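Running low. Invent one:
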Amino acid sequence: MKKLMLIVFLVHSLVACSSSTDGIRPKEDTVVVDVKNNADYDIYMLELSWYHTEELKGSQGTMKAEDGPKLKKGESLQFELTEADLSLDGEVLFELALIDVKDDRKRILIGEKFPLNLEKGKVYSLEIRGDKQSNLVVAAINE
């Protein structure tokens, strides 16, 4: 009986650890942007774009699964950026959008563009809040 309880405890601990974003450790030459869904809105796919002096320099999309389950409230998606994508030192202007897989992959901007002061090897935690398309916002999570 003690072995069974120990196994249940270990499995529960492993599941809890795997769903946490605290364990994200980027490589020394990358930056990770972790986006947590705290919105009451269906999110399936996200796109992160970056700009230099208002000129689009690149973008990256991510999702849980192609046309699969939506991102549940409290779940996160990560973007890993490298020097091949953009300069990882200094301020960069970003924009976050969701891609509506139910509406012909329509791109919906989430709030306004926002700056991040990047440093290699760091994780930047953001969250999406709101309950309808017109009031979705992205905000930094202070940890």
Q: What stands out?
A: Confidence is low (pLDDT under 50) at residues 1-21. The first strand starts at residue 30 and ends at 37. The beta strands are 30-37, 45-52, 55-63, 76-82, 90-100, 106-109, 114-118, 123-129, 137-140. The chain has one domain: 2-140.
